[in-house]
Structures are given as C-alpha cells and as structure tokens.
Amino acid sequence: MPQPPHISRLPVPEISTLDADLQKYFRKCVEKLGLVPNVLRAYAFRPAHLRNFISMYNELMLSDDSGLSTLEREMIAVVVSACNRCYYCLIAHGQAVRELSGDPQLAEMLVSNYRVAPLSPRQTAMLDFAHRLTTTPDAIRESDRQALREAGFSEADLFDISEVVAFFNYSNRMAAALDLMPNPEYHSMNRL
Amino acid sequence: MPQPPHISRLPVPEISTLDADLQKYFRKCVEKLGLVPNVLRAYAFRPAHLRNFISMYNELMLSDDSGLSTLEREMIAVVVSACNRCYYCLIAHGQAVRELSGDPQLAEMLVSNYRVAPLSPRQTAMLDFAHRLTTTPDAIRESDRQALREAGFSEADLFDISEVVAFFNYSNRMAAALDLMPNPEYHSMNRL
Amino acid sequence: MPQPPHISRLPVPEISTLDADLQKYFRKCVEKLGLVPNVLRAYAFRPAHLRNFISMYNELMLSDDSGLSTLEREMIAVVVSACNRCYYCLIAHGQAVRELSGDPQLAEMLVSNYRVAPLSPRQTAMLDFAHRLTTTPDAIRESDRQALREAGFSEADLFDISEVVAFFNYSNRMAAALDLMPNPEYHSMNRL
Amino acid sequence: MPQPPHISRLPVPEISTLDADLQKYFRKCVEKLGLVPNVLRAYAFRPAHLRNFISMYNELMLSDDSGLSTLEREMIAVVVSACNRCYYCLIAHGQAVRELSGDPQLAEMLVSNYRVAPLSPRQTAMLDFAHRLTTTPDAIRESDRQALREAGFSEADLFDISEVVAFFNYSNRMAAALDLMPNPEYHSMNRL
Amino acid sequence: MPQPPHISRLPVPEISTLDADLQKYFRKCVEKLGLVPNVLRAYAFRPAHLRNFISMYNELMLSDDSGLSTLEREMIAVVVSACNRCYYCLIAHGQAVRELSGDPQLAEMLVSNYRVAPLSPRQTAMLDFAHRLTTTPDAIRESDRQALREAGFSEADLFDISEVVAFFNYSNRMAAALDLMPNPEYHSMNRL
Amino acid sequence: MPQPPHISRLPVPEISTLDADLQKYFRKCVEKLGLVPNVLRAYAFRPAHLRNFISMYNELMLSDDSGLSTLEREMIAVVVSACNRCYYCLIAHGQAVRELSGDPQLAEMLVSNYRVAPLSPRQTAMLDFAHRLTTTPDAIRESDRQALREAGFSEADLFDISEVVAFFNYSNRMAAALDLMPNPEYHSMNRL
User: What is the CB neighbour count within 10 angstroms for residue A37?
Assistant: First the structure.
C-alpha cells in the first residue's frame, strides 16, 4: 500500500525525539496493532495533549468497565464519523467494526448510511441517538433518553453512549482540522 | 460472503421468467462481470423501465463517445452517491473506482469526503461541480460552468459531467426508494 | 411572447443538421404539442443521449402501462421541481398540471408549496413521499413505503412513483447545469 | 375561477360587520383593484392589527417617498416569498410583477429561482441581498451592505430594501400561520 | 457601560432634528424606560417608517387587547430572535423577560435553547409553534394550529401568537441589515 | 438564585460518597471558584471518566503552555457553544468571557452571534475557523488553516485552536445528552 502524502498538515515529530513514555507507548501499539495509529503520531506534536487523548480514548473505547460492548462503541464511532464525513475515523473505525463483527458488509453500511443496516432494536436505538446527538444536539429531549432506556440501556450506558458520540464529534474535528491521513494498512484488513 | 437479506423491497422476478432479451443480457453480465448487478434484478420488476435504464446507463458510463474517462465518470458516481449517502451505489461504484484506478485509498476518500483526496486541478473542478450540482442545483451559475471550461473541459464534456451527476441523483433515489442491496461480491474486490 | 435569451448555455444544433430520426421526432412534437420542447433541442447536442432521454421520458410520463394517471405523474414532476427550484420544469410541467387537471390554482399551489393544496389522502401520500425522497433520500425507511401501500398504491405503483421522483431529480439537475430556458408558449397556456 | 375552500383558518368576519373606516377602505380596494385582497379580509378578525398592517404595507410598497421603484419592491416581495415558499404572496405579488413589468416570464423566474432571470447588476445586487437576508440573516456583514452601495443604492435605499425584505418575512409567516388563500382573480391576470 | 461603536450602519439623525411628534415620543420613552431604544433612533432615518413601526410594535407587544400576557409575548420574541441569532433583540427582549418573569435563568434559557427551560404545556406549545413558524414556515399544517388550540389558546390568541412570531422575523432582519446595537443599559438590568 | 430543577438527568452521586481524590478536587474548586461546576458533579457518576475530563479540560483551557490566551480559549468555547445552542456552556463560559475580558457586551455578542462583535483580525480569523470547523467540518481545506497562519497563529496555535473547538463540540453534546444545568451563580457574576 502506498503511504499517504502526509500524516498531518501540522508538524509531526520523529518518534525517536519523543519522551520515553510516549516512545514506549508507541512500541506497545506496534506490538498489539502492528502499527502506530497516525492520530497518535500527529498528537505527539503536543505531548501533554497526546497523553490526555490516549487516556480518554482508552477508557472510553477499550475499558471493561462499560455496559457497551467494544463493537457497539465502534459502531457509534463509525456512525458519528459518517455524519461528519471524517475520512480518518471512517477508515480506522470501519476496520474495527469489520474486525469485531466479522461482517464487512455491516461496516460498509454504517459508513454509507446506518439506516440500511439490519440492526437489532437495541442497536437501532443506540445509533438513532448517536445520529441525533451529532446532527441536532440542541433538539435532544427527555424522550430521546427514554428511548434508550426502553431499548434496555442502563443509566451508566446512557452516559457511555453519550460520551462516545461526543468524543467522535471531538476527534472528527481534530482529523478535519489537521487533515489527518489514516495508516494505509487499515484499507485491506478484515475484508474477507 | 453472506447474501444480503433482500435485493429490493419490491418484488424481484426470477430470471427464468424474464423476456428472452433480458435473460440474454443478464447472461452477458455474468460473463463480463461475474454477476448480475442487483439493480438490474430489481428493475426487472418493470421490464420496459429496465431496458431504458440499461440503455441510458451504458451510454453514459461505458460509451467511448465521451471526453471523460471511465474512471472520471465513476469518480463522479461515487461523489454524488456520497452526498446522497447511497449504500448501493457507494459499494458498486466504489469498487469500480478501485478497479479502474488501482487505488483503494482514492476510492475510500471519495466515499468519505472527496475534499481529502489528492486530486488534479481537473479532477477537483469536476468533483466540486458534481458536489454543488447535487446539493444546491438552484445555485448553479455561469461561473460554475466557466470553472469547468478553465479546467480544460469541452462543451461536450460539460454535458457529460452534468448528465453523470444528474443520473446518479436519479439512481441514488431509486436505490433509496427500493432499499436496494448491492451484490456482496463487490465488498472484497480490488482491495489490494 | 418574447423568446428567452438562450435555450441552453451549451451549443444547440440547428434542427436541419440533425439525424433523420430526430428531425422526424421533432416534427411529431410540433404536430402534437405545437412546439419542440427546448430540453430536446438542448439534448440534440449529444444525439445518443437525446434518444435515451426520449425513450425514458416517454415510458415514464406517457405510458399506459402504469397505475398512476398522467396527472399524478405530472403532479410529482412539479413537486420535485419545486424542491429543487427548477425553472424549466416548473414552467413546462406546471402547464401540464394545468392542462390535465383543468385547475390552474392547483398547479400554482404545487409550484409554491404543495402542502397548501387541497389533496386527497392518496395524493398527499404520493407527494409527501416525493418531497421526502427528493430532499432526504438517505432517511427513507420501510415506513415511508408502507404509507404509500396504505394509501392504496400497488407494488408496481411504488416503483413508478419512485422512478418519476428520481427522474425529475435527474432532469432538474440537467436544466440547472445547462441553464435551460423553457419554450415561452408554456406561460400563457391553460391559464383560464 | 372557483373560490378557494377558505380565506383563512381563523374566523373571517363579514365585511358588513366591520367598523366604518374599514368598510370604506375595502370599498376603495374594490374600486382600485377590483377585489379586496384576502389578507385584509383575514386581518379584519383583529381590526387594530389590520389598521397597522395597511399603514405599514402602503408606506413600504406604494409610497412615492422611496428610491426604489414599485416594480423593484414587488420583485423583492416575490424573491423573499419564494425563499419561504409562501403560496399567498407568490400569487399576489407574482401578479404585481407581471403587471408592473409587462413580463410574465420574469415573474415566473422570480417565483421559481431568481438566479435564472436576466437581471441588471442593480437588480442582481438587490435580490442577492434579499435572498441572503431572508435565509441567513445572522451572516449579514458590512460587505453585504457595501455591495448594495456599489450597485448604486443610497443609504435610504438600503433602509427600504431591508424593510421590504423584512416585511415579507413577516407577511409570509402570517400567510403560513393562517393558511391564507389568495383571491382567485390573481391567477389569470396579466398573463399575456 | 461603554457605548457601542455605533447605533446603526445607516445614518442616525440627531434627536433635535426630528419632527415634534417623534421628539415627544422619545421623551416619553426616556420617562418610562430610562432610555430611547436604539431601534427607534435608527428608524428615525425614515420617519414615516418609524411611525408605523411604533404603532405596530405597541399594539402587538403592549396592548391590553390580547389573550397573551406581555411575558408570553416577550418569550416568543426571545425564541424567534434566538432562531435568527439576532443580537439586538436577544439583548432587549431578554431584559424584558428578566423583568417580567423575575427569573434571569429563564431568560438565558430562552436565549440559548428554549428546549431546556422548565415550561408549562401552554408555554411549550406556544414556543414550539414559534420555533417552527420561524424556521420552516412552509411546513406549517393544520396540526400545528390544532396543537395551540389543545393547549388552551383561542382563535384570537392564534392570530396574536402568529403575528408576534412574524413581527420578530421582521425586526430581526432589520437589526441584521442595519447591524443595530442595543442600548448598553440592557446588559445589567434585572440580573439579580 | 433558585437552584435549577436538576443537575443532570442521570444519577448524581453525593460528594461525600466519592473517592478521596475527587472530594479533594471538588474542595479545591470551591476554594478557587466558590463552587463545584455542575458538569463535574454530573461526571462523578462515572469517576474514571471524570478524571479524564478534568485532565483534558485543565490542559486545554488553563495551561500556560499555549500561544492562546485564556480569554481567546474562552471566546472559542462560547462561539462553538452558540453554534450548538448549548445552554450549560454558554452560561459557564459566557461568565468566563465576562470575567477575563471585563466586557459583558462582548460576551453577549459571542453568545448571540459573534459576527456582530468588534473583533481584531486575529480574533476574527480564530472565530471564523471555530464556526466553520463546528458547523461544516467536512469542508475544511488548506485555505482555512492558511487563514489562521496569515493572522499570525503558529503551528502549535493551530493545534490548540482546533482542539478547543473540538473539545466544546464534545462537551456541548455531553451537556445536551445529560441536560446539564449550570450552577445558578454564573448568571449574576461579572455583569457590571
């Protein structure tokens, strides 16, 4: 796969120049994922910001302390990123949905238009909320929260769904602002 | 690849029940493409409409009598379909862009947000026009046509760009109205 | 009536230079309609495209093989063209609604805002669908199709409604892209 | 012409029950216009409001004390009403543009999409401002006012253009809120 | 409080140069309000227009002949002005809501997003209608009027609600067009 | 000031039940600010999430390691929150702009419509970018970044502006999702 023309439109430090803790974290990424996600490379331009990004991301997306499965969190990530037309996140989290679901068609449906996907009522409620909170946050009313409760989500789940939606509204805008390019490896992973 | 749950939400006739000319055309599709595109299966519910669809599609997208390359036409197809969030067309024409360009990343960029793709000035002018004619047709002015001319397009090219944009605004709406599901084979083709 | 300043912003061939089949078709238009619609004059710049346009248009809008009346098809044409603010189609198909309904007020209501027209439940369902498929195609769900069925439309009717909506999303964009001007005769026809 | 099914969705008092000054004014309307505009009939439900409406309308639209011609004011009325898709005002003020311009095509262009009309630079500046102040009032900046000055408008003209735009954003909403139906006579006037 | 850099971007006449009736009215404003609202100063550039503005404003917003309380009318003013993001009206009528309600939090809620305010069913119906008539006037249907009736509003109340909504769609656009700056005194009034 | 009817629509733990580090942090808030911001009370329902929120917020909004002044960061916060119509953030960060700028009118302008504020070219560039990245993140192009550079911002400043914009797109959505109510004390602070 050819490398993209850039990682970020802002300066990207060489890994060897980073603080030891960050170099160590990047080595751990390579061990676990086979790559250092380009978003981390780009954030290394502002190391204190990178540390906060990693900490918030890992708690939200990877923690066991949530009623949401990791697949559900990744499905939200893709739907929010589709609303915002964020290339970086659609590629990186589309791959995650393919990997976690084993269903490349599902991932592509969420990238294109989640309304065409054959979803469970729980997934539909979750993704309808994600779409609505992303596109018209000022129109959220108690009935929107209630629809999640009726689909079986707990109060803590409501918090987590909301924060994953909110987080990708943050990261989509960072990707847009810096014109982040995803690692090319994502494109061909989990396609079969 | 698992089959999608349906091809269309309207009745889809068995191929063996179709008129001879259509059965013959579908056999030709299998020979050339390895499949009968599901949109044709769905249109077979209204055979006279299918014949017109085939004729218009083939002239617009496959004819040698155009100053636009087939890749350029497919790039327009994907950008229009992204504006309209059309799952069927993004999958089918995303595959075509991968095949014709040999560049899976380019196809994914056009699916997500064509503005992040590294395009030539000619491609940028063409896709900016496609985006604008799709999303705000009432705002097109002479300056929009002039931008195409300045990018090197002829008057006939302007006609063809416009009609490809227009055509996918048609086919995207048919796919949405019938909830068309693309052939699952597209998902894994030309990924490497 | 004064002629408009142009028919199309792209070259418009003299009728006498066209292939015999097209000249013959244009003569038939004059016999039946009293004029050659300017959209056909403009498409003659790309003759193979004109033939496909004629064939698709006639099947969709004039064929007896449809559960939709010609007035219903023209009403859809006007509502879609109002969404897209397409001058050419509002003038040409507004005249058709006046002629077929004998009700100039109805035509003007559809041009301005179909929601103010006194419609039957069948017409309301049909035009609500046309409006929705035009403006938010990605939001169409099974409930939208079901509303048409409940208003008495057959599966084949659903196909035809969808394709008329889709077709005017195509032709509106051609009219916008080429800045097509309608024949001036339409303005005063069927006003009383 | 058939009467519309109603004048307003709120009660419409009989003319004979109105105060003498209003009855007199309505008789004057019949003398000058051949009809009492239905908007006045509808406002008569709230007589003090009607008197203010008449006074503001007449100053804005009919007064000699303005650098704008009455045609220019009516053109603005139609463009604003097209933005807001107001049936009543498009019919009533579309007729006024036909009468004052002697050009039915111009009126229909403004109803459909003012951008297709062959306008002078002065008219273009005026109507671009009307469109922008109607659809995105929060985005008006000094450059918008400056464009009017550069097109030859005086400071008092800027006031009057702005107030005509503002007024039809008012009256369009009254027509929508009350579902006002225009007098049927407008439809056939000044068509030739 | 510092004075704003300007009152209006158009000429603002000295009060001493105005006709006697207007000077008298401005003195009455100072007596009752402690200031001459800047909108009146700005309108004095077109004195006949100012007289109509005063007359319509006073009938609509201050008259005893209405089923709406003055607080209700001011709440509508703020919600409409929030839709249109009108600085002048949000400051002036936000102060009025603070004064009439004695509840600064309510005023700020209406400025930000009325949906977060703890409203009665009557207020909710009224403000939902105001929001809808402002943002999508072409989508108003009988069901919108009926929702007001079911919340207890009379036919005359429907007229008045509609006209207050309509009026602020007018005045917001005048404020935007002229870049009107509110009197600085409003900012600190009724904050506690 | 009356307390709002709730802090969050999800459970809000008593402070005395929180882990020692969080109780200590809340005491520090009271010492420095005179209150515990309600957003922190609401996040305490998910303590690990609260710690990440605090860490990211403090780095972004309070750190000395940024080329942006704290006032500039708060101005961005208000403009983003105005785009998203977020009551909580407009109240809390509107107060911060009043405190840091000493200019209540500036704060109200940013709440209503930043385009009416008398801004320096640097502030205008920064807030235009904030508005655009919030409302149309997919349309950001190199020219948007370049406009910031031309206004004197460094590459690190571009990172920080982008992340503050991104962060409030996150926190606005959390406030909407949980219906967060700001501490009533903000309303009257720094009004004079």
Answer: 18
